[in-house]
Amino acid sequence: MKKIVVNTGSNVSVVIVKLVITFIMTPVLVHNLGNYDYGIWEIIAAVIGYMGLLDMGLKPAISRFSASYHASGDSVRLQELYSTSFVFLAIIGLMLCLFFSLLGVFWPEVISGEDSDTYRYSLLLFIIAIQLLIEFPGYVAESFLEGFQKYYIKNNITIFNSIVGSSLLYFTISPENALVLLAGINAIGLSVKYIIYMFMLSRPGFGRLKPSISTATWRSYRETVNFGAKSFIQGVASRIEIGTDTIVIGAFLGPASIPFYAIPANIISYIRNIGWTLTHAFMPLFSELHATDKKQEIQQLYLNASRYIVAVLLPTSVGATLVGDDFIGVWVGEQYQRDAEGIILLLVIYMTLPFLNPLSTRYLTAIGRHGLLAKVFPVSASVNLIVSIILVQYWGIIGVAVGSVIPVFILTPVVLRACCKYLGISVTHYFLISIWPSVIPTVLMWLSVYVFCQFQPLASYIDILFAVITGAMVYCIVY
Fold it and tell me: Fewer C-beta neighbours within 10 Å, C or N terminus of the chain?
């Protein structure tokens, strides 16, 4: 439990730091990039996210098996796993580097549009190419640190890296250099971070792990790929759901329309990131408990941890629907408030429903039952994509948000029922223990903030802060 507290606290610290950085930097980026380049940057981020799927699901597999081998003291299998996965992902990184380099040389107009200055777009693609060359093998080192449950180490590095990079960007950015500078600082920061991870794993305290072709084995490759295949399918579906919206809007409405969706979506994504962060460290722990057949401990941990995670995410999500659009108006300008209230409400529903059962994917992956996720996630993602493409042509960016919401009403009950089955509890029991304690406090919090807003319009940060404090006090007292 101490590991869970330390690692989860460290993960939350990263989210808080990145949230503060986003709060400071988003208006700066919007002003210096302009709507078109800001849209291009969001599309690039979505595409890189899709490129991450080429790890074939190895990241969760590496984390799981490294935790198992580390616990049993099997240094030979650890070295095999490290070398095998490193070689495989280094090859993937090299191929992506070549692809983006060729794109930058011959077809920069793919992203430059009507802009005659294709040079900076070529440079952007070259920077992305170098980043991916280092990033993919870097995933291996990061996954090993997670498997060793050393989240706090990688998180401290990430925090330092994020603060330094954002500070450099803040003081040197201008409309003339914004896009290339943003990509360059981001690429350098990520590359340095992964190189530090690799260096740390080579030290005696981490097993002197170094990539070597001679210790790479087909046995280790088959083992990780067979396990990771299900995670890969799930990851493809998740990435489609997360990245589709930006690409659909860019394709049908143009890159300049993306900021009007991306800004409210990014606010909600931080709530989702908090959820992922709070659950991240549970997968290796569930795996350890499952290996030692401690079913009762798993059940109690699942119910209690879910109750507290829901207690954080449910009021946070509901609060975002009340103050989110006003916050955007104060934060980046009233023009970006357009449709923000509707987008936030729909995306909160999309994000909150799955997080009423926040540990589902961690638990099912840990016990090797994530095949279910590989079946239902692609269906959900396909429905999301098809409905978004249809509705964007009639309702614009609101239609894309509606496309995200519809599938979760099918997905959530299926996954919840499966988790309860493997835990040996009823869905009703889960609801009463883990969800119900937060429902009445959240309703009363919503009422208190709503009444506050009727008497005091949210026209400044101070107004928003007092509204949030009012809601938080009501929620905490009632809870």
Answer: N
Contact 43, 255 (CB under 8 A): yes
Each residue's pLDDT tens digit, 292-346: 788 899 999 999 999 999 999 999 999 999 998 898 988 888 888 777 888 899 9
CB-CB contact of 66 with 80 (8 Å):
no
| 325 CB-near residues (< 8 Å, 6+ apart) | 264, 337, 340, 341, 344
Burial of 214 (0-12, 13-18, 19+ CB in 10 A): exposed
Sign of the Cα pseudo-torsion (457, 463, 468, 473, in order): negative
pTM above 0.85? no
Sorted by sequence, the CB contacts under 8 Å of residue 131 that are 6+ apart come out as 183, 186, 187, 190, 191
**Which tens digit of pLDDT belongs to each residue from 1-32?**
666 677 677 777 887 888 888 888 888 888 88
> Could you tell me the sign of the dihedral formed by the alpha carbons of 346, 350, 353, 356, in that order?
negative
Residues 6+ positions from 428 with CB-CB distance below 8 Å: none
